[in-house]
Amino acid sequence: MSAMSVMGTMSDVLSIEHFDQVARLTLNRPEQRNALNRSLRMALAKAFRDLAEASRVIVLTGSGAAFCAGFDLAELAAGGDNAADAGADFSTELIPAIADYPGPIIAAVNGAAATAGFELALACDLMIASTAAKFADTHARVGILPGWGLSQRLPRLIGIARAKELSFTGNFVAADLAYEWGLVNRVVAPEQLLPAAHELADDMISSNPGTLVAYKRLIDEGFAMPLAQAMRHEADAALASAQALTGEVAGARKESLQKRFRNRSSDD
Fold it and tell me: What's the mean pLDDT in 115-133?
């Protein structure tokens, strides 16, 4: 991670910091456990849209003790919003903005990620969890069905039986068990969460920019296809990539890769 952020902005609900080519978004409603009121949903959607050209990797995290407690039920109960409108914001604004972001998105889950907050984390490309993180799907307890990917993404990550256990009970799963189940990539101490996320982001931006974007798209598109179709899709993409690669460019990239490995070996 860069020694300092080169630029930062903060609204009442969202902090945006830039570390060279990495942007960090911090949900900034700690007293409400970063619950997704309308202002935060809209601020997040705008940030992902704006950062599509301004950064190559995004780290998403929460302030205070929680990652995100889900929708702001107090706002819904007060009549400032309703479930249908809140769902529309999420499905037509926020989730598409996340899906359209071309680079990797790392969820640095610092605390509880519940229901819509769980869906927000699942919409990212991967998760790093603090030992204080925990995950829950409380849709069945609240009395509403998910509509932003939880019922489809979760079984694909951890298996259908484990997903049903989480969703049918509404129980929390702790970070260590989430790691065992394949829900998160790694678990680190709270003070190591952001450094670990940024170290991973820095590794990603050291890759070829165009290939990184194309690789993310290739994985996501192929994952939505039957295997045979996905294999053909990969073969077509590989052929197009190889045809576009000149010998001069290939040589330069090989030297860059060898230099990186030499540097890593000397660090060890």
Answer: 97
